[in-house]
Amino acid sequence: MEKYSEKLLSHFHHTTHQGRLDLALPQVYMSKTGSIDNQDVLQIFLQINNGVIVQARFLAIGSVAIIGGAQWLCEFIEGREVGDAKQLGIHEILKSLALPSVKIHVAQLLLSALTQCLEAGTHA
Amino acid sequence: MGKKLIYLDYMATTPVDQRVVDVMTTCLQQDGPYGNPSSAHQFGREANERIALARQQVADLIGADAREIFWTSGATESINLAIKGVAQFYGRQGKHIITMQTEHKAVLATCEYLAAQGYEITYLSPNLNGLLDLDLLAKAIRPDTILASIMHVNNETGVVQNIAAIGQLLRDKGVLFHVDAAQSAGKLPIDLSQLPVDLMSLASHKLYGPKGVGALYVRQRPKVQLVPQIHGAKQEQGIRAGTLATHQIVGMGKACELARLEMSTESLRLKELLERLWCGVSELGGLHRHGAAEISVCNCLNFAVDGVDGESLVYALYDLALSTGSACNAATTNPSHVLLAMGIPHEQAARALRLSVGRFTTESEIDHAILRIKEQVQRLRAMSPL
Question: Are strands B145-151 and B96-100 parallel, antiparallel or unpaired?
Fold first, then answer.
């Protein structure tokens, strides 16, 4: 069992942003990363209006790190401009979540999911 | 949600029974038996008398003679002494040892050590239900086989091996038989006056005694010989050196006495609690039990829940003390070697949970645990993208 930071555990226990957004709606984008073979699967939904992320939701199965991390990510980016969100880097994720060293790949998954979703929004 | 933590990890360890604490405490007082048990004076004799009583209490639990009980620091040391001690003493007769893939790491690591010393180890697979196939064992025995080490109750699944049948087969073939009984002593009746077992390892902390003390049963008729693994003075008939820890030993003795006296009623109560728990959580659907109830010990439940990661569920159930039965490393989760050996798929084994009840578990705790497990499984399933 990994030892997680209190902050990460708090996000894991209080998943206020869990759920999906209706992809039939305009300006709603989705990305999916990870695989069940590697324990963690993450799906992110963003609603982007006029360059601002107005809603962020996630679905996840896997470790405490991916669920707590996805909750943190959604909270972090909601209300931000797409340009700001694109500035988020792996080091900031690692620092914010205080992930144990063996869970660094989770930060990469979070960043990949965000990047892919924002790309989908940019090219829509 | 109640704030009280509910302990459901009795297979990992047990709290020390207050009645055990009471007798231990008397040994730690200035007017208690603090003398070195090897000393000839009154202080030493008092300590030695208390130790003799404890030795008898342990022997009574397993149907042995007190002279066949040797004190150690715990089951891991007992296992090391039994396997390495036999291997080294009988090494000229043969260097082949049989064990199972589902054994505790104390056995597996000891066998790996001996393999590096030139011994040959056969690791038998269990059936899908976790039991050892006697035909497989019979086929594995060779002229140079000196020892087989098979655990009585598996520490992860609770599956109970038929040590009477296994022992008889080994006895007929002239192979010594060591049983790791850390998880069965005090839970199942054991009568070594009838069972064909040559060595048996016991742990105090699994039966409401203190940590740091255990025992090894070594059959005296016919006498099993061991090479000591700890060298020093001639305590324990020269088999295990070191000043005896009177308070620890007295605690283990009392714990064994209580377990013997309460086993029949307690095992029924625990079985009912465990089945209440299983019936309750089964309502969720998508659960896979590892180790059927009819072949498992009364207090252990191992299962996987579809659609939920084992680690996440354990953290979500922060007010329940339970175990995943798996060791995490790096980027992936390594499922239990026991479950994999039983043929359980990797992905299912990685989601396994182990819950175990014990002397202080109550019905209301079980009902609360059922509610919490159902609530959190439903929560985690609801957020799954699969």
Answer: parallel
